[in-house]
Amino acid sequence: MSKHNLPLTPPGLLIRQVVPSADTVMITTAPKAPEACCPVCGHASHRVHSRYFRTLADLPWQRRTVLIRIQARRFRCPVAECPRRIFTERRPAIATGPWSRRTGRLGEIQRHLGLAMSGRAGAYLAERLVMPAGGDTLLRLVRRIEPEEPAVVRVAGIDDWARRRGHRYGTMVVDLERRKVVDLLPDREADTDAWWMAEHPEIEVISRDRSAAYADAARHGAHQACDAARTNDPASEKGHSPQTIAPL
């Protein structure tokens, strides 16, 4: 298999030197591109102002920590009117930000560890996988995830959920078409639920239990929707009694 199929470094870098040791592999690199774009005005520049080295942690190799030492450059902006006279080249394919201490591909795996196992357990597994990161770091990577655009909820299911069982309850709103929780409301009062429904006029069907508070919320907050009141009668689960579906 060729080197192109198994790259040692992220794309856009030339390898200058590889120095292995018992615990680490230090790879010294330089950018391939002869120019960089100003982050303010977007114009490309070939005028190098200065050079410096920055070190990024990368994916491990043979149970060794891999460090990539990059010869980064500062450029002079060619546009006289640009407020940024000198800028540092940025390579999003290599590092997510100018102050990152890890490559993007390492950060992605550590972020998934934080999502799957939270802080302390994720940090323990990351150490075992030779991708060390503290629990706070993993949680910080998780918080940087851009939130998804809110989807249109056509069929909403509402039910209560326990903050503290027997003491404090809230309302859970589920998109039944996508089978995904879309919101958690702080209580299960009719006014709170009605306010949420009024903020989502796209709702066409509301599935709920026979709670009086939910019925009142659906009546006042979603006039346009059909109310599908679920029953707890075991006979209805066997198909002997239909559920109530009626326009509000």
UniProtKB/TrEMBL annotation:
Region (Disordered): 223-248
Domain Transposase IS204/IS1001/IS1096/IS1165 DDE: 157-224
Pfam families: DDE_Tnp_ISL3 (PF01610), Zn_ribbon_ISL3 (PF14690)
Transposase IS204/IS1001/IS1096/IS1165 zinc-finger domain span: 35-78
Identification of the protein by name: ISL3 family transposase
